[in-house]
Every structure is written in C-alpha cells, then in structure tokens.
Amino acid sequence: MKSLIVSLLVVVGLGTCAVPSYALTWDAYVSSTGTDTGSCFRPTPCATFSYALTQVSGGGVIHVVDSGAYGAATIAHSVTIDGGGLATTLAGGGFSITLAAQLAVSAAATDVVTIQNFTMSGVGAAPSAVAVASVGALHVQNCNFVRYSGAAIDFRATGGLLDMKDVTITDIQGGNGIYVGNGRAMLDHVSISRTQTAVLSAGAATVFITHSTANGNGSGFVAAYGPTAELHIDDCTMTNNQWAVVAGQGATAYVSRSSLTNNFIVALFNDGASHLISYGDNRFASNASDGAFTGMAAVK
Questions:
Q1: CATH architecture of the domain formed by 27-296
Q2: What residues contact 110, with CB distance under 8 A and at least 6 apart?
Q3: What are the tens digits of pLDDT across the range 126-160?
Q4: Band of the pLDDT at 11, cuts 50, 70, 90?
Q5: Which range is least confidently modeled, 23-27, 74-78, 168-172?
Q6: What would the pLDDT profile of 84-124 be if each residue is shown by its tens digit?
Q7: Domain spans, the chain
Q8: Residue 249 exposed, middle or buried by CB count within 10 Å (0-12, 13-18, 19+)
Q9: With CB atoms 3.0 to 4.6 Å apart as the test, which of 89, 150, 170, 185 could cross-link to 207 if both were Cys?
C-alpha cells in the first residue's frame, strides 16, 4: 500500500511539473489606451495585434475595444479577430501606413482564421487588408475594406478555403477586390465597386459567387491565368463595369440567374480559348454589347 501511494505521488508530481508556469488566454483585448504587457485581459488590454497574438491560445479570440491603430500583424495559428464594428487603422497612431499587408496569414493547413466586424483602409498605399500564404480556412464576415493598392483580400493558400459573407470592398482602382490563386472560395453577399477587377479566380482556383454585386469596376468577375480556373456566378448583379464577366487563358465561367446591365464595353468577354457557360436564365439590358456564351449547361 505504501508503495502504491509513493507511485501515485510520483505520477501526480510529474503531471504537475508538466504544466507550464503560465497559460495563454482564450480571450485577449486590444485598446487604443492599452500597453503591450501582461496577458491582454479586459481590465488591462494590450496595444497591438502582434502582441495580442502572442497571448491568445490557438482558437481564441482577440477583441477590439475601441477605434485605434493596432499595427500590422502576422497570424500563424487559429484565431478570431473581432473588430467590434469599429473603424480601425493598422498604422502607428493612424499617421502612417505600413507598405505591406495589414494582416498576413501564414498558418498550417489545419488552422482556421476568422476576421470579422472590421472597417479598414489602406489609404491607397497598403497592398492588402488580408494576404494569405497558407491556411486551412479563412472566414471574413461583416467587413468594409477601402483603398488598397493590390487586392483587399489576396488569397494564395493552395488547397485552402476562403469564405466571405456580408463584405463591402471599394476604391482599388489599380488592383483587385478579391484575388484567389490556387484555392477555393465562397463569396456570399459581397459588394465590390471602383476596382480594376472585382474578383479574379486565377491558376487552379475555383470561386463560387452568390447574391453579390460588381458595380463600376474595370472588370467584374474574371476567371483567368490557367485552364482549370473556374467561376460559378449565381444570382448576382454586374452593372456599370467595362466588362461584366471575363474568361481567359482557357478558364471557365458559369453564370446563372444573374443580371448583366449597362456594361460599357461588353458584358461577356471570352478570349477565344476559354468558356462562358449559361444555365439559360440570365438577364441582359443596356450593355454596349452583350457578348455571347460559348455553351449551355443542363438544369437538372
């Protein structure tokens, strides 16, 4: 019996020694009056996203307490960053801008990152609001992104999933609203205006767009730069663009239940080597030229 008690004490002692002397938090807070010390608890918030990311556990949440300048950051593990619906700049004091992606994601294929409830601006200098090199899934919801020089969302995670809902993007006149390269994307209730290209599905990407609007862009929804690039456009409005739907370099765009109106050059553009497929239920009006589909898909 004494031997058993000693053995149990040894096991308990080893288990105790294995517990670290500190623990990360599930909820971290950043504030315009915070400081980058401690654990970013609600009574003592920290000042930057980069520090908060060192304090929050994988799968935890970083909460924005008030409008402020919280600095650019690289996200390397599962996390949710909740902007609280507040206008937020990611530059020191709001008087400068980082000439790099404001939130860079370089995480594992098993990680899930969520960016929600933000209003962010690149003031025409920052290339992207969110740039993704690798991740399992990125969720972007209830956000407004304004004035970037490259792409508001630059998603290049091979095999990764981009999921966006209730997002507005505007004023990226030399770049893309959303760029998806070699990944998968689902865009729902996304409104994009005043960009060079609203959505670009490139390489081996597959992008599904529904209940969304491309208004006043150079090009609306584009599939290009690879014969396996695909767009699936359903119940969308494309208006006041130069080109509404573009397929190039062997790519394919499928269009259903959508309105293409008042586009200034041509609603449908195909480079002759690509595919524009209709389900036979789209509406065209007041375009300089409607263009033409190259094929029909069966409705089953």
A1: 3 Solenoid (2.160)
A2: 136
A3: 999 999 999 999 999 999 999 999 999 999 999 99
A4: very low
A5: 23-27
A6: 988 777 765 555 566 789 999 999 999 999 999 999 998 88
A7: 27-296
A8: middle
A9: 185
In the prediction, which pLDDT does 99 show? 74
